[in-house]
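**User:** My hope is that you can spare some time for a protein that puzzles me. I have put the entry right below:
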Amino acid sequence: MAQRTVLVVLFDDVQSLDVTGPVEVFAGADKHVPGTYRVRTASLDGGAVRTSSGLTLVPDTALADAPAPHTLLVPGGQGTRVPDPRLTEWLREHGPRAERLVSVCTGAILLAEAGLLDGRRATTHWAYSDTLARNHPAIEVDAEPIYVRDGHVSTSAGVTAGIDLALALVEEDLGREVALGVARHLVVFLRRPGNQAQFSAQLRAQTARREPLREVQQWIAEHPGGDLGVESLAARALLSPRHFARAFRTETGMTPGRYVDRVRLEHARRLLEDTGEGVEEISRASGYGTPEAMRRAFVRALATSPAEYRRRFRPAPVR
């Protein structure tokens, strides 16, 4: 098996975890199967860079002297806000030569500035997806998934999503058992599919300013299997259904129905991942009522059935 060179681009104000997370995955895979990956780091001039948290990273070499990579990995961080034109030009010239092009978090902005995402579907950190879409209309930006793979180009959301993507690439290269071994060593689960949402419903929505609406948000999270219709929730907030629906959307950025859908889906996924309960029990506990209703919700949101989701993403017991 030919050794794959993974070249990680470094720059000032890079997010350190965007670098070290994937690096640990590929380095760990090479320990499991020696000779499969050669990880190298490079900055524009070969000098040390200071991360956004203040850590100093010393690269192996300058980009001009870097080996031709199989996988070119571009991390994110504050340093992507105003990209160095020299780095953008280097990516424009060398990016197309890599067999696999990968970005973590706002590293997608650097790839976009270099024209490497035009005509492709991509993601980035949720907080910057609108900016990416606005500045680069030729890119199909999807803010929902933790990572997106479009041909040989892969983009991921923030920080830990880079680990998920790196594990998926290792699984593609070396098989699930190797990827699972790396995940166990790093004490992470090899279970998050790329189409999993970047954050939970509670984080996705804003917290309501008014106490009655905040209490309703908490009630929904604690009682996903309960009566969560607008009339019932409005009565809990002591508001008319129409006033409640309007106020909830204004203060959270999401309709009550959409919020309930997300909470129920998240609750069902968690039960599928973490318990041995049957699909029928989980459908009731999550407010779907029937397995068929839950199946439709899963197919609509995740493009997979509950049974398949559990089979693929419930972590295997560590021995």
